[in-house]
Design a protein that fits this description.
four-stranded parallel beta sheet; eight-stranded mixed beta sheet; alpha/beta; 9 helices; elongated
């Protein structure tokens, strides 16, 4: 038996007179398949998913495994799928697969991918090769690690990519083909709640200090989505030097890593690191925010946060 937990999203929507809206439950999504325990957790668009909801979903998924499910499939909207999957992958300590999927076209649209993606998730869930790989995501027959999956296009069926590490594998002819099983899993302690606040600030041309100062005063940590390989303007450095809370630097480029020792000018990575900023390397901005939120909620100090970052690189 497999279990499918539905959170909502495009995969559960139908077109109405004024756009697609949540309409289908987990039973509706699985009535074309056999031996699926269908559970409707919610029916919302994915921008409305919260960390408290995901903590409940994790507990529910683990309970389904205890009851005998070989794997658990989670369906949700694609807008935040990469973040939900990454969050869950920090805590999923079981060998049984936890698999995220969704759809780019809702079930009432021509060429909808919803049934194909559910079918791919079932094939992946039933494969012995998927065991021990942590949280996986499958869409458009491509299998991604939760650590590096990224939505790169607003509407294309080929939106999801893992450009920094490549695919885990793919689904072809009703079979999972494994390409890469070297993704790291942290298996952190599950916090009772995410009770910290982390600001995510994107650097742009001629950036001033106002939001940096506000974040320093009102948040527990900061993630910067920096220029290029992880840089800020020289004029921002006095403000950054005065911030005592943890700061992680990522790249607004999304693809590639942040620098560590290439650039030495004021505001570049060497200068930032000397002033206590943690370079994320390959971890994206939204995922760095989640990791910092979790680490702070677990009481980690800056050195422990640096060690967490290193485990992804």
């Amino acid at each position: 038996m497999l279990s499918l937990i539905s959170l909502g999203g495009t995969i559960s929507m139908l077109s109405s007179g004024e756009g697609a809206i949540p309409s289908l439950n987990a039973n509706d999504l699985t009535n074309s398949f056999k031996d699926i325990n269908a559970i409707t957790f919610s029916n919302i668009s994915s921008p409305n998913i919260t960390f408290s909801m995901l903590l409940e979903v994790l507990a529910l998924a683990k309970e389904e495994i205890k009851k005998g499910s070989r794997a658990v499939i989670i369906t949700q909207g694609t807008d935040t799928l990469e973040e939900s999957a990454f969050f869950c992958n920090l805590f999923w300590d079981l060998d049984e697969p936890l698999i995220f999927t969704g759809a780019m076209k809702n079930p009432s649209e021509l060429g909808s991918d919803y049934l194909a993606n559910i079918n791919s998730a079932i094939i992946l869930a039933n494969s012995d090769l998927a065991k021990g790989l942590g949280v996986l995501c499958v869409l458009n027959e491509s299998v991604h690690s939760a650590n590096f999956i990224h939505k790169s296009n607003t509407f294309s069926l080929e939106t999801f990519t893992s450009f920094n590490r490549g695919l885990v594998g793919e689904i072809k002819e009703d079979k999972f083909y494994l390409f890469n099983n070297f993704y790291k899993r942290l298996k952190l302690e599950l916090p009772k709640e995410i009770n910290k606040k982390v600001a995510l600030l994107k650097m742009c041309l001629d950036y001033d200090d106002d939001l940096l100062k506000f974040a320093s005063d009102n948040y527990d940590g900061i993630v910067l989505s920096g220029y290029g390989a992880g840089h800020v303007m020289a004029k921002n450095m006095p403000c950054i030097k005065n911030i005592k809370k943890p700061i992680i630097m990522t790249s607004r480029c999304e693809s590639g890593k942040t620098g560590l020792k290439t650039y030495g000018y004021a505001g570049a990575e060497i200068d930032l690191a000397k002033n206590g900023v943690i370079m994320s390397e390959y971890l994206s901005d939204v995922k760095a925010r989640i990791l910092l939120l979790v680490a702070l909620s677990l009481g980690f100090n800056k050195d422990q946060i640096k060690d967490l970052i290193k485990q992804f690189n």
